[in-house]
Specification:
Cytochrome Bc1 Complex, Chain D, domain 2, 2 domains, heme, Putative cytochrome c peroxidase, mainly alpha, two-stranded antiparallel sheet, Di-haem_cyt_c_peroxidsae, peroxidase
Length: 276
C-alpha cells in the first residue's frame, strides 16, 4: 500500500510584538578622543618664553662660545672679555696689530652699549642686532647667527653698564665732593676745550661721524670709562688719555681758530674726562 505523505510543518509566523530593538552605539573616539603622541604635541607647542634674566644668561654663554666664529678661532669674549670691557688691543680682522696701524680698529668697551645710537667705528650699524651680526659674520667669519642667538647676545650686552664714579653725577656735571681739578676740567670741557661739541652730555658721544684728521670720518666714541680704554681713537694711535685730550684740543683750536691749552689745563681736563 502506498504510504500517506507526512503533513508539512509550517514555520511559526513572527510575532509583531517581537521586533528586535536596535541600540545606537556612539563611537568611543567621539566622546573620549585619544591624546596626541608626545612628539606631535612637542612639535606644535611653542617653546616657553625666556625671562630677560634667562635670555641674558644664555647670551653670556654664547658670548664665550668660540663656535660662533669660523674655525672656532675666537669668541666675543676674546676681544671684550666676559665682562664686555675692551682687552685694549687693536685688530685687523682677528689678528692683533700694532697700535696706530691705519688699517687697525681699536677694541671699544661694550659697557653702556645699550645707550648708544649707532654702532661700529664707521657708524655702519643702525641697531645693536646689526652690529653683533656684522661682527660675527664679517670679522669672526662665522655662520649666520639665528634670531634666537642674536636676541640672547643683545640681552646680555644690554646688561653691561658703566661703573659709577663718585666725582661725576649722572648728568655729567661734577658732584659737590669732586676734586678741584675735576671741577676745573668740567669748565674747560664745556668751554674753551670744545669737547662738549661732539662728546655731548650726558651720553658723551653723538650719532654722527666726524673727520678729526685721523684718516677719515669715524663714529664719535663715548668718553664714559675712558680712563680704562687705552689706546685711543679708531686705530689706537694714542697711548695715554692725556695725549688724546691734547690731540683733540689742538684739533678743535685749529678748526675754530682758538687758543691752545696750557699744561695745567691739560691736566685738569684729563682729570675730568678720566672721572667719567
Amino acid at each position: 500500500m502506498a504510504r500517506k505523505p507526512k503533513p508539512m510543518q509550517s514555520e511559526p509566523m513572527p510575532s509583531k510584538t517581537a521586533q528586535p530593538t536596535t541600540v545606537p552605539v556612539t563611537p568611543v573616539a567621539a566622546e573620549n578622543p585619544l591624546a596626541p603622541p608626545t612628539t606631535v604635541g612637542a612639535a606644535v607647542t611653542p617653546p616657553a618664553q625666556l625671562s630677560e634674566a634667562e635670555l641674558a644668561a644664555k647670551g653670556l654663554e654664547l658670548f664665550n662660545d668660540a663656535s660662533l666664529s669660523g674655525g672656532n678661532k675666537a669668541s666675543c669674549a676674546t676681544c671684550h672679555f666676559s665682562t664686555g670691557h675692551t682687552n685694549n688691543k687693536t685688530y685687523v680682522g682677528l689678528d692683533v696689530v700694532a697700535d696706530g696701524d691705519p688699517n687697525g680698529r681699536n677694541t671699544p668697551t661694550l659697557w653702556g652699549v645699550g645707550e648708544r645710537a649707532v654702532f661700529g667705528w664707521a657708524g655702519q650699524a643702525a641697531t645693536l642686532e646689526d652690529s653683533i651680526r656684522g661682527i660675527i659674520v664679517n670679522r669672526m667669519k662665522g655662520a649666520e647667527p639665528s634670531k634666537e642667538s642674536l636676541a640672547a647676545l643683545v640681552a646680555y650686552v644690554r646688561t653691561l653698564n658703566y661703573p659709577k664714579n663718585w666725582q661725576v653725577k649722572d648728568d655729567g656735571t661734577p658732584s659737590a665732593d669732586a676734586s678741584a681739578a675735576v671741577k676745573r676740567g668740567y669748565d674747560l670741557y664745556v668751554g674753551d676745550g670744545g669737547c662738549g661739541t661732539c662728546h655731548q652730555l650726558p651720553s658723551f658721544d653723538k650719532k654722527s661721524k666726524d673727520d678729526i684728521g685721523t684718516g677719515g670720518k669715524f663714529k664719535v666714541p663715548t668718553l664714559h670709562a675712558a680712563a680704562s680704554t687705552a689706546p685711543y681713537f679708531h686705530d689706537g694711535r694714542t697711548a695715554s688719555l692725556r695725549d688724546a685730550v691734547k690731540l683733540m684740543w689742538e684739533f678743535y683750536a685749529k678748526k675754530m681758530e682758538s687758543r691752545l691749552p696750557t699744561e695745567a689745563e691739560l691736566d685738569d681736563l684729563t682729570a675730568y674726562v678720566g672721572a667719567l
